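Justification of resources, computational component.

The compute hours requested in this renewal are based largely on the per-chain cost of generating structure records like the one below. Each record pairs the submitted sequence with a full structure-token output. That output is archived, and it is also reused by downstream analysis tasks.
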Amino acid sequence: MNLLPPVEQFTSSSGVDIYRLPMVLFPNNFTGHAFLLEGAGPLTLVDTGSGIGRSNDDLLDGFRQIQQRFGRAFTLADIERVIITHGHIDHFGGLAFVKSHTNAEVGIHELDRRVLTNYEERVIVATKALGIYFERAGISPALRETLFEMYGFAKKHVTSIDVDFSLEDEGIIDGMEFIHTPGHCPGQVCIRLGDVLLSADHVLSQTTPHQSPESITHYMGLDHYADSLRKLLRYEGIRLALGGHEDTIHDLYGRIQAIRASHNRKLDRIRLIMRDNGAPMTISQISKAMYPDVEGYHILLAIEEAGAHIEYLYQHGHLTIANLKEFEAAPNPAILYELHD
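The structure output for this chain reads:
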């Protein structure tokens, strides 16, 4: 059984008390946070967990800890507003559970709004786009079927749910400033509260947030993500950042530079793999060379991560399509890339 850290309290320079509620989001002990905001208008919950496994119970336990450790007797029924930082299931999958306890209004950025309001449609559209990507990446039919099963497994318990308002870039609501930072997810927002930033999955303390190609979903991809990192550097005076996963970030600006350096290393790694191979390669082949030991769901993540970086190199003129005639003539062949440095 995964032992979670206790609920922590942070106070921003704008006078907002921020309670960080840890949860186990998936049965593989993948953990993350929701945040309860007191002092930013009506009592506000930022993200809801996945709604899978023990996630809902962990959320309720977080509220019990707030009362025990900080003397604030809140329940889910007291929540008047829910903010979803982005449309990934580990951040909004528990929304139906929360809404079963409260009539709180729900807000999300408009680029992720349909993930909540038209969930079933979104899954079908995304699955179709993923299938096209698998073919172009050179994934074998047998592996495609396995990846589709893994992709759809965690999405079966969620249904569409109403959204009451949209979050706008640089919009301010009750002192919460929303910063649209697409890349990891189209509608990803960070929330600035004085000198504290809720950085969601845009900036994490230990890992570089997962990247997926824009060829699968618009407003994703490494180019958008890099732009969003540069955008965040322009916001001065942030003392600490609280990510949707992992630890507190005490040097946001240094962490951003470290993430940028990590992605540059991945780009260099792809160039080296392709040079050493000496022949054109598919995304699947490059992914296997970059991540030879991954298993299970991480195979899908590796294919998307490698693909996002390959897409970036292609967009910036460092790669060309070696089998262009086949690509022109066939319905959707695997693309062979070669260096064009």
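The chain has a mean pLDDT of 95. Residues 266-339 form a domain with the Arc Repressor Mutant, subunit A fold (CATH 1.10.10).
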